[in-house]
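Why predict the complex rather than its parts? Because the way molecules touch one another can change local conformation, and only a joint prediction can capture that. The input here totals 252 residues.
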Amino acid sequence: MDRRKFLGVGIATFAAIVAPGTNLRAMDFRAEKPKAWEAEKSVDAIKELYGSAGLKKSNKIKLTAPKLAENGGSIPINIKSKLDLESVAIFQDANPRSLTAVFTVPEGGIIDYDFRIKMRQTALVTIVGKGRDGTLYTTGKEIDVSIGGCGG
Amino acid sequence: MAKMKIKAKEKKGVVKVKAMFTSLMADKEEAEKKKIKVDYIRQIVAKINGKVVYEVTTSGFMAENPLIKFKTKGGKKGDKIEFTTTDNNGKTATSKKKIK
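Output of the joint prediction:
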């Protein structure tokens, strides 16, 4: 085999081995921060997940949600942001455990996520985004729930 | 186990993806009330050409049959998008779809 070619193959396989590894490591928040998933209050869950660094209120993360949700079993949520974030987490105070979902944003990814959550009662929904420089941005909104989800 | 419906469309370099997964998303309390087993998806990962474009760690407080939408720049027409879900028992399911 040509020496040049051989090197090329070597680098390609190396990249193939390393890339999934780093992806895996970044992925599983449940394995990495098991305590955050057990916390009852948003404040505690945020501390467990991101540490006790100060949160910065920001209007650069946009949270779109209905003010009044008729069905607490399925509340549409949209998160949009142009900030360069590393991960975005959503917390709420309505359910027995606060942390609902954590998004890992790939490099250069567009932050525009739509999904639905369950809420048992009227409560505050908090979004926390962690920038690649470590800054924590937060925004929140209270959602009124008339019929609780979660089997309640 | 978990079935998936995927739709992906490319327009001007941005791929819009919609995906729906069948899962009860029942956490401990809900499972107790309904007398069913705890069953929820704990992780959803989407890849285009082997590169992760979307990943989320979820809990039982996502709504039943989670429907997600997102945009990404990491793909073009004809590429395949691959979704992998992991449920609370560690079972995984994979599904592929071509980007239109």
